[in-house]
Amino acid sequence: MDLSVITNEDGDDTFDKRNIMKRKILFIAALALMATVSCNKDKPDQNTASGVSNLMDGGAWEVSYFFDNEDRTSSFEDFRLKFDTDGVVRAIDGMTAEFKGIWLITDSNVDSDGIDELKFNISFLGPDYFQDLTGDWNIIEKSKSIIKLENTHGNSDETEYLTFEK
Question: What are φ and ψ of residue 91, in 5° steps?
Fold first, then answer.
């Protein structure tokens, strides 16, 4: 019996060719769906603490904006910051200076409107202008190339703004 061409009772193989083509299309669609699902599992959710931590790892960031009662961005213009997976942040000026601090992304679980609130915690011991970055910052925008933060001091109306960009 030759299986290379299967025909129906009338000797017409059109029906079987359509069936085979439909099966091929369904098989390709299933493969594409499996590839999409498996790729999504590899991408961290940017709305979780570990997802934001993964965004920060790998590459140098710069302070593109820092406002604390006035624009103080120029204090950081020569520095690139590297956020290591072990929780150490290194500020390097490309010459000789290197200042180390610590960083951690935390999740407050739920804020007043029922939404998880992620915090960017950073701390430097010195010099003074890097100590000014120390705080428990609210993350207001995040992507692979920009992190925007804000920090309001207790009962005061003073709000600081800090932006990191790649």
Answer: -105, 115
The pairing of strands 118-124 and 135-142 is antiparallel
Same domain assignment for residues 36 and 61: no
**Amino acid at residue number 126:** G
Q: Are 75 and 62 in contact (CB under 8 A)?
A: no
**Structural domain tally of the chain?**
2
Reported as a single tens digit per residue, the pLDDT across 9-28 is 555 555 566 666 666 665 56
**Burial of 98 by CB count in 10 Å (0-12 exposed, 13-18 middle, 19+ buried)?**
exposed
| Whether 66 and 129 share a structural domain | yes
Opening angle at CA 71, ends 157 and 148, nearest 5 = 75
Its domain, for residue 10, covers 1-43
